[in-house]
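#lab-general

N.A. 3:47 PM
ok so I finally got the sequence cleaned up, no stray characters, all 139 residues accounted for. can someone with queue access submit it? mine expired

B.Y. 3:52 PM
send it over

N.A. 3:53 PM
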Amino acid sequence: MFFENNDLHKKMAGAQDLDGDGVISPQEAAAYIQQYIQSAPPEDRARLMQDYFGQMPAEQKSALGTALVQSPATPVSSVRPGDDHDLIDAYTKSAQAPAQNGKSPLEAAFGQGGMLGNPLVKAGLVGLAGMIGSRLLRR
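B.Y. 4:20 PM
back already:
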């Protein structure tokens, strides 16, 4: 069902709003990323995420890893700075962990407050959702 939702993929790819508030929120992006990680074949997921994190500045990778580690909702206890595979693994573990209070661990980690004050974290999260949407539309 996820892969057939071209309207959702177009919205994410075009950085359009999903809930009518004018922006793609980090929570919307996190929910989309979680759906992708849970639905995509492992090799496709790994390739896409490697492409995305491979072009990201080290400072931004570090900020994203820190956001996952600092969230009590994720099962992630550490992310080695500069290790793309470690960051990919952290995202995958967080997306595949059970929901808590009706939110996925990714949604909770990137919820209001905390690391979302860091523009690198917001941009990295929404950018990953955009890349996923773009790739899925090209299928």
